[in-house]
Structures are given as C-alpha cells and as structure tokens.
Amino acid sequence: MKTLNLKNRAVTTGLPAFVMGIVNATPDSFFDKSRGGLDEALRLIDEGADILDIGGESTRPGSKYVEAEEEIRRVIGVIEGVRKVSDIPISVDTRKFEVMKAAFDAGADILNDISALEDDVRLAPFCAEAGIPVILMHKRGNPSTMQKNTVYENVFDEVNCYLKSRVDFALKEGIAFEKIWLDPGIGFGKNVADNFELMRRCGELLGGKYPVLMALSRKSCIGEVTGRPVEERLSGTLVADLLSVLVGASMIRVHDVSAAVDSLKILSAFCG
User: Does the active-site annotation cover 84?
Assistant: First the structure.
C-alpha cells in the first residue's frame, strides 16, 4: 500500500501507484484537451484521481515565464471550487513562493516544484514550517531553453546526484524525510534515450529511499518512439506508466485518469 503524508493526514491507495490528474489552468499547455479549470478538475475527481495537480504556468519546452499574480489568478479559483465539494489532495505545480502561499491558504496540500526549491529561496522554509510535502524535479536550464542542452556523460548519475543535493537542501531547511518525493524530469533537458534510461531506473534514484513520481503522459519521447501526435499517445503513455510502476514509481501524473486507474487495476490483479 502506498502512502502520501500531508500536513495533518496521510492518504493511501490500494493500487500499485497513486494517480495524479493534471489540471492545466493555462492557455498554452502542450495537450490542449487538458487545458481547463474547475470543470476539468471535477471530471478528473469523478474518474478516480487520487490527487489533482493544478498548474497556472506551462513548463513545456519553449514556454514563457508567467508572473506570480497571473499564475495566482489562474489557479486559486480552481482550488477554491474543488474545496467546496472534495477533500482530495491538491498539488500545485509552481516554482514561486507567492503562488504556493496563496494556494495553501486556499486549501492546497502539496508543492510540485520543477526547480526543486532552487528558483525561490522562500519556498523551502515555508514548506517546512507549514508541513507541506514537496516534489523535487530535475531539469536543466529553464523551460524556454532546456531542450538546447541534452547531452550527459551519464544521465542517471547526473540526475541522481542533483536530486540528492536538493534532498539534502530540503532536509537542512527542515522539510521532513517522509514528505519528500522525487521526479527525474522526463522531457526536461533530456533526449529520448536518456528519458527511457531514467524510466528504466527510476526506482533506483537515491537508493529507493524516497518515493518517485513519474510524469510521462503524452510527452514527446513517447511520440518519437511511436510516431504518434499528442492526441494519439494514450496507449504509449499507459505502457510507459505501467513499466515505470513495475520498476519502482509510486505515483504517475496523467492527463487520462480513468484509463490510468483501469490499467493499474489490471496490473494489481496480474501481480496478485
């Protein structure tokens, strides 16, 4: 059984991994069917999401920086709307203190930070004091430039070393061991071969001491292998997610919650 420790409660799943549903409160996320607000969030809850991940800034390759005020405007109404009908854990996909503070005040539970607490020095102490779990992701550069440098001598070792340094930082800042999650950052400054190497070895990150989130849904590496456009990458995504879970992932971040839940149910029955 997988466990996610929030501020004042722990949530569990009997499936092989948690399903995090993506809510893009943005006009420019790469999969246009995921763009939406409260209606999309409620639909994903109905489909069986364990967690919602709400983001107000697209971080796809080539995307532009969004100011905190605009990001807050995009996400707070969604969080408040969800909280009127559900206590589902809410993650906020942000790298800005002002956004996380406003989101937490509105009822959010988790920080999903693509900068692994690097971009805003105020985030770590805030999360430590508030008891907020954090997802620390590896990336190289920033979203507007990250795919211009995808060469590594050893991608697993470099990602592993980086995540260890960010975990050490988080622990030093007072974030509890049991509230740290890792994300190898599929598609964030990596080529196709490196993405699949990280998928194969995701359970080995930091010796398996911390749970791992895999965010693979409909990404370009799946498209490059299958030859499918974004709209036709569901089958490839499901296989990639299940393989990642088999080698150690504890959470999958998806656009297609119902299909992900069904596939995990089959995996659970198969594995006994």
Answer: no
